[in-house]
Design brief:
It is a single chain. By secondary structure, the protein is α/β, with parallel strands linked by helices. The chain has one domain: Rossmann fold (3-Layer(aba) Sandwich), CATH 3.40.50.720. Helices cover 42% and strands 15% of the residues. The protein contains eight helices and seven strands; from the N terminus they run βαβαβαβαβαβαααβ. The chain has a seven-stranded parallel beta sheet with strand order 3-2-1-4-5-6-7, with helices on both faces. Helix 2 links the parallel strand 2 and strand 3. The longest helix is centred in the middle third of the chain and has 28 residues. The chain starts with 11 loop residues before the first strand and ends in a 12-residue tail after the last strand. The structure holds nicotinamide-adenine-dinucleotide (NAD). The site of nicotinamide-adenine-dinucleotide has 32 residues, from helix 1, helix 4 and helix 6.
């Protein structure tokens, strides 16, 4: 048996934004490790596709429609986990990256509010309802998706997105400290740029893509599965002494000054 196999047996893992990209890959991996996965998304087609793929691979998953910016939706998804054996893993992964988010003078309040509602309030709501459920279940692991942009600045600003991810990072650290003696671990997963639909449109422009690739020591984007493997680790007992981290999975971006030719 591979190391870590079945590490999540008997555990329920709620994953937001699991209808695509990193969330979908994490659903497949966590189900493969024995978890029952609660797939949450606003995209019903994407979410049910993830459930089918998990089922086809021999795993267990259910789709619960949830908009992470709506308290009742998250409450309902957490209730689903509670009524099916409890909540053990909460992967607050859903996020948006709108094109019209730019430098501060060019960013509208509407875009700012939208991004904050999904990327930051969405994570807050996941924690607000997830933490009491996890305490009830005897502990668990919270993984909140931030980003490398939470720790380094870009001259190609997306101010609302960056600020939202900085908020996720700070919030996660505080939660980790507050609940460390109650069996809850919390880590901020910080991916570098990933090859998912979130960036696809944006990076279709070869100049934009080249402008970013030059700053990545590895010289390539991550695949969603490479980020999902980190989420699996943070969800599993393998990471039992890991909490409060800024968990970078960024191809070396945040370590770099001059990158290889
Ligand atoms: N792709 C990247 O380069 C990158 C880099 C760093 C961090 N991230 C972060 O990783 C996370 C996942 O991104 P991804 O690249 O897999 O993107 P993705 O677009 O492939 O998937 C995001 C999913 O979230 C869902 N979603 C959007 N708004 C929602 C809402 N209000 N409620 C519930 N679900 C909602 C979408 O329908 C989609 O299925 C996001 O938080 C993103 O900010 C991505």
């Amino acid at each position: 048996m591979a190391e870590g196999a079945n590490e999540l047996e008997g555990r329920n893992a709620l994953i937001t934004g699991a209808g695509s990209g990193i969330g979908r890959e994490a659903a497949l991996l966590m189900a493969g490790a024995g978890a029952r996965v609660i797939v949450c998304d606003v995209d019903e087609a994407g979410g049910t596709e993830t459930v089918s793929r998990v089922g086809a691979a021999g795993g267990e998953a259910d789709f619960v429609h949830a908009d992470v910016s709506k308290a009742n939706d998250i409450k309902n998804a957490v209730e689903f986990a509670k009524s099916h054996g409890g909540l053990h893993v909460m992967f607050n992964n859903a996020g948006i990256f709108p094109d019209d988010d730019g430098s501060p003078p060019d960013t509208t309040e509407e875009v700012w509010d939208l991004v904050m509602n999904v990327n930051l309030k969405g994570v807050f709501l996941g924690c607000k309802y997830g933490i009491p459920a996890m305490i009830e279940a005897g502990g668990g692991s919270i993984i909140n998706t931030a980003s490398f942009v939470a720790v380094v600045g870009a001259a190609t600003s997306q101010i609302a997105y960056t600020a939202s991810k900085g908020g996720v990072l700070a919030m996660t650290r505080e939660i980790a400290v507050e609940y460390a003696r109650q069996g809850i671990r919390a880590n901020a997963l910080c991916p570098g740029p990933v090859n998912t639909p979130l960036l696809e449109e944006f990076l279709r422009d070869p100049e934009k893509k080249a402008r970013r690739l030059i700053h990545i020591p590895m010289g390539r984007l991550a695949e969603a599965s490479e980020i999902a493997r980190a989420a699996l680790y943070l969800a599993s007992p393998s990471s039992s002494y890991v909490t409060g981290t800024t968990f970078m999975v960024d191809g070396g971006i945040t370590a770099a000054y001059v990158t290889p030719e």
